[in-house]
Write a structure and sequence with these properties.
binds SN-glycerol-3-phosphate, single chain, 8 strands, Triosephosphate isomerase, globular, Triosephosphate_isomerase, 15% strand, TIM Barrel, isomerase
Length: 249
Amino acid sequence: MRQKIIAGNWKMHKTTDEARQFVQALQEKLTDCRAAVVICPPFTALAAVAEVLAGSKLALGAQNMHWADQGAYTGEISPLMLQDCGCRYVILGHSERRQYFGETDGQVNQKVKAALAHGLLPVVCVGETLAQRQGGLTETVVGSQTAAALAGLTPEQVAGLVIAYEPVWAIGTGQTASEQDAQQVNQYIRALLAEQYGQAAAAAVRILYGGSVKPANAASLLAQPDIDGALVGGASLKAADFLGIIQAV
Ligand code: G3P
């Protein structure tokens, strides 16, 4: 039985004070929870959120990182720095990184390997654009992004991974994939992993869905057999909405 994960990706939102207050309020209201809950604030708020989360069941994640431990990479953050801030998870290959910052499949692969080497749990994002979906290319795109991101990993490493299927057309648009469509792609990813890494790894890997997840649609998405949780953007910025999604598990 795979434990579900509800992860909040705050993207470029919230000051340190806002982050601290949000997490304090969330913790007070979150009494009983079956899911693993992960908060991914911007880099500037990681340390503050880590302080509030100390000793709690909620985990901290980052939204990106560089693959090198250190070096002359102006503006970048290394896996060692994320560990230093108390991160357990790191989102890698988000479509906004690919689209606006030119992140390639090869770089995502380097980052995944670096995260694993430092004991961070990667949340590897894959997903097709609207044009690709309309052109019947969803499986081709998602399949090749997944294969490239995971290239060179062992079945044991794959078993511990988190993958997030985030169709680009559903991100921040209010246009959620239907639970059938999301389930179909997640099932496809799991089947692909079974072929490449074996049944045991495919059965263990957690595959989330992301893209306009809200309290109103969370329960039906999370009820699908291959949807092991949600990567939530906009609705993770309001405590009531994020709680509603967590409570849908
Ligand atoms: O990583 C989360 C994401 O991109 C989905 O964003 O705002 O559609 O929930 P949103």
